[in-house]
Amino acid sequence: MIFRTIFFLTLLSQVPAITGNIFSSIIPPLFGKKKSPPIETVFKLPSPLPVLPQGEGFATGTINLGGLEVSQVSTFSKIWATHEGGPDNLGVTFFEPLPILNGFFMLGCYAQPNKKALFGWVLAGKDGGTGALKMPVDYTLVWSSESSKIKQEGNGYIWLPVPPNGYKPVGYLVTNSPEKPPLDKIRCVCSDFTDDVEPELLIWEHDNVGNFNDISVKSLRPTNRGTQALGVSVGTFVALVNDSSSPLPISCLKNKEFNLSFMPNLSQIEGLIQAYAPLVYIHPDDLYLPSSVGWFFSNGARLYKKGNESNHVPIDPTGLNLPQGGSDDGSYWIDLPVDNGAKEKVKKGDLGGAGAYFHIKPMLGATFSDIAIWVFYPFNGPARAKVELVSVPLGRIGEHVGDWEHITLRISNFNGELWRVYFSQHSGGTWVDASEVEFQGGKNKVLAYASLHGHAFYSKPGLFLQGNNKIGIGIRDDAAKSEIVMDTGSRFAIVSAKYFKNEVISVPPWLNFYGKWGPKADYDIAMELEKIERVLPRNLKASFESAVNGLPNELLGEDGPTGPKAKDNWNGDER
Ligand SMILES: *[C@@H]1O[C@H](CO)[C@@H](O)[C@H](O)[C@H]1NC(C)=O
Ligand SMILES: *[C@@H]1O[C@H](CO)[C@@H](O)[C@H](O)[C@H]1NC(C)=O
Ligand SMILES: *[C@@H]1O[C@H](CO)[C@@H](O)[C@H](O)[C@H]1NC(C)=O
Ligand SMILES: *[C@@H]1O[C@H](CO)[C@@H](O)[C@H](O)[C@H]1NC(C)=O
């Protein structure tokens, strides 16, 4: 991180003022002097990157994809910006990666919406003597801003490299002059090293009213993602003109030999956990706190078998007597203790003894490490709805036993830097860039907020609605700062890192239990809803009904919850 800034400042002194620059206080912008420049600062984590044990392939700056070496470049020179269009009409700035390591070549430019700190990277490539890279044979001018009347700094030109036979472009070039760029400016990639790519997020769009040539610029991700998938993100964008979206004219990279030596080893993972492991703020009114799995089992949780419900049995603290492997066929499930006193005690959890469970997995062709951090709550409390301005308790709806929630840190295997954080929310969740998450006390520890009763994770405090936001109806997720904090890095267990070669992880038997961690709802949802509707003002009944009908089953708690390993994201990407 420190190096990034130094590089950048060195760079500033070398770049002629005519190209403009993101540090307007140093080099005044040529256009729009009164306006603040679109992107003023470079994002920096609060603390320097963790110092990790050096060695093997992790965090050494480059990764070998099996004959094509790549490096991650996050220093940029600004090429062109417009001050309008795209999400929130923020406009966009296009950058060229600079400087690039000796012997490496540009594979594409970078684009980012304005009004936020510069935060991103693109890969640059070096041919390992395998013919992995070749110059384009020509460029196609995909779009230029010449005929548009947008607020912009000069004109911008977006070029798609025309590859030689058997090669593919993995990024675009952007220039601020109409001349075709020199062919040796960028490299195309041999199709042995490329994979399919799909648009991820909208970066910018411009409707060139009536003139065609409408453009949308989107970020990209490999189409095939997961712990075994080979697709590697390049960090570049796709520029789609006239709504032509398929097939995309570019590709991403592929980790041909899937060499896992660039993944962190055990001591490096412990360093990453020390540096980034989230602090979880639990809602001050929440009665249902996390516990360790062992505490839940030793304090009276029971194992049930279908057809023999009256003969439920206690569970060994490590889960040794839980059925192992297979899939959930509904024949076994876990439930709270039967005795009322024990039941109420277990529902409240045991924050003092609770720890988080970590799963480390390769992602994006093993160029990133996903650290999934699982938190267990014995009980998920009842939900509340928001119907227009009224907050409506939903009786027992939403309640369930055995609540597994997770946060995932996505960390670069090039340099150990945190890129994104995934906050799970009911059956989905959200990725938030490291530049947009909260940190505390000058440390790189991520803050997360667990919502009242439902324990959905958010990156900031506030009221979040699951449902139809537009008409103001939905299930409430209330997240707030409080004195109740769980440091997921202070009492953690690494329960899975399948790629390890020499290090041994002790996998707790409960991890291989594929049955449900709680029974199916034992209350009648229709009846609960009727009770609630009876007390609602007449004019709210209809909108309440339509809101509840649109809720996913998972929120209504009809089906019992599954354990971490039974979820799609165990081997797949988050969604
Ligand atoms: C991880 O790799 C580093 C660097 O090679 C080494 O110092 C450390 O001992 C390794 N840790 C383990 C647990 O193997
Ligand atoms: C978009 O449509 C306009 C008008 O039909 C055409 O002139 C232009 O070449 C098209 N551009 C692309 C990239 O298809
Ligand atoms: C994996 O990469 C490392 C570091 O570049 C290298 O030493 C090792 O030989 C590679 N392994 C395979 C199987 O290619
Ligand atoms: C029911 O469970 C009890 C206690 O585990 C066991 O002894 C019995 O054989 C079971 N009966 C059936 C039909 O599975």
From TrEMBL:
Q: Which PANTHER family match?
A: DUF946 FAMILY PROTEIN (DUF946), F1C9.34 PROTEIN
Source domain of life is Eukaryota
Q: Where is this region: Disordered?
A: 551-575
The identity of this protein, by name, is: Vacuolar protein sorting-associated protein 62
Biased composition range(s): Basic and acidic residues: 565-575
Mind listing the UniProt keywords for this protein, alphabetically? Signal
The signal sequence is: 1-20
InterPro entries tied to this protein: Vps62
